[in-house]
Every structure is written in structure tokens, then in C-alpha cells.
Amino acid sequence: MVNCLAYLGFNDVKQAERITLAEYQLRLEAYELRAIRKREDQAYQAWYNYAVQATTGGKNPKWKYASVQKFLKDVGIAKSLSAINAQYGRSSDNDKENTTKLFQRRYKEFRELKKRGLIDMQAWKGGG
Fold this sequence. Notes:
Shape: extended
Distance between the termini: 59 Å
Number of helices: 6
Strand order of the largest sheet: 1-2
Structural class: mainly alpha
Largest sheet: 2 strands, antiparallel
Helix content: 55-70%
């Protein structure tokens, strides 16, 4: 009963009392698989932490991965993520570049309008 409440996702004692032995064993196996997956994820995290700190060169070491994107590309995560994003219609790195360019263009327009006196900066200050 305690295992049901502590580990198997039951919130109600009555619900825990109604499960069959087969369901209990199935849920316990699922819990153990989740625990194994969690330990595996922790091992990967430790490995990635080690790998991302790798350097090249002897006397003048340089970081092997200059950016997170390069590390993700080398590990193969970037390609998988792009495929998932394409499948579900999420934005890609191209969209991020377009967003950055759009922001830069609008900021340039803002500075020009401000320079011509068409933007009142006092309007942006909160009044009491």
C-alpha cells in the first residue's frame, strides 16, 4: 500500500486498495524503468558536462566546442531536434535568424524615428 502511494502515482488510499496484483506488478515495473531512465539521463548529463569542457591543443588549449550549438551538432541532438521541429511545425534556426533580422530592422527604424522627434520617450516612463 505504501509503495502505491509513495512511488506508483496513487493519491487515494481507496484507489490503491482496488488495484489487482497484476496491475501492481506492472506499475512497479514501470516505476523501475523510469528510475533506470533517470539514472541513464544523469549519466549522459555527467558525460556531456565532461565533453563540453574538453579542450584541444597542448600548451595553448582551446575549447573544443566554441558554442552549445556546435556541441549539440556534434552529438547529433541538433539534427534530431530539427527533425522534430519540422514534424510538429515549430520554428527552426532559420526562423530565429529571421526574427533577429526583423528585430534589428525595427530597432533601426525606432532610432531613426526617435532622432526625428517622432517618438516621445516620456510616454514610456511610468507615472504615478
